[in-house]
Design a protein that fits this description.
aa-tRNA-synth_I_CS, mainly alpha, Tyrosyl-Transfer RNA Synthetase, Rossmann fold, binds adenosine-5'-tetraphosphate, three-stranded parallel β-sheet, single chain, two-stranded parallel sheet
Amino acid sequence: TPRVFSGIQPSGGLTLGNYLGAIKRFVDMQGSGIETIYCVVDMHAITVWQDPDALRRQTRELTAGYLAAGLDPTRSILFNQSQVPEHAQLAWIFNCVARLGWMNRMTQFKDKAGKNAEKASLGLYAYPALMAADILVYHATHVPVGEDQKQHVELTRDIAAKFNHDFKTDFFPMTAPVIEGAATRVMSLRDGSKKMSKSDPSDASRINMTDDADAIAKKIRKAKTDPEPLPESVEGLKDRPEARNLVNIYAALSGDTVADVMAQVGGKPFGEFKPLLADLAVEKLAPISSEMARYMRDPAEIDRILKDGAGRARAIASPVVQKTYEIVGMVGA
Ligand code: AQP
């Protein structure tokens, strides 16, 4: 049976990019004979500095976001990474399989480490090996991610292939990234060439899942665009990144294709299109943010859900680590 794994870092508040590129798609994959395992990857989050109180709050808030968006903890396994130590155990083995040359090609490390890479943590550099362990400790077959994570899923396959080759086994599967829909790369509202990100210093660049209706409407009204009205058809969006981004967001929120959306709004000036988008965003996001707030009033319930999920995750992960140790030649396994 197909098994889906994916995760999100509790490294800040959730953005519309995380919702449309990840959570909404995770929820849509539940059921229909697929096993779904979703994680709050707190060990990834600490690859850059996190204040401990903020990390606790963000972990619970992200869990509340998953639940509020429709993730059902009885149909999916939902947990935080640090509570399943098998992720770290397998990551060490993979640190010894992955090559420095592979890590040096990772664009996310270059982006996040910036100019002064000497000051970046060793964890940030090794991040993709931990991500490979997150996926392969469940023998996951499919990983829904945004476009930005494609390279890391490819590295996961390289690690699985090298492990299988070195130890003459077929133990680890070749996992496929699942990158589909209109919102695999939601862009900043201030700069159509940058991805919308939790950690962008400008709050106006993103819609936070906790923003109220006024804030959402204001950010969309102020979103950067060119002066032309929307083109008549999809082809006309080609060299207009800001227009394309807003249309993609509309499509992902409404569940229509981009072509359908263009049939409805093609030719409209932004002064008309932006209020439509703002209304749609408020209609879709307000119920989720109020449900998130409701979950946040009961942190003990959130912790209970995470703990239950961690127990179920370990039941799958533990035999995989034992078997890996045995293959590698560790006595006692
Ligand atoms: N802008 C985006 N559009 C579509 N998908 C996105 N994702 C993130 N941003 C967008 C997807 O969300 C999932 C979780 O991402 P993450 O939190 O693990 O890390 P990230 O990609 O580094 O996200 P951020 O928001 O940019 O966080 P910071 O600012 O901390 O680096 C992934 O599937 C990702 O593709």
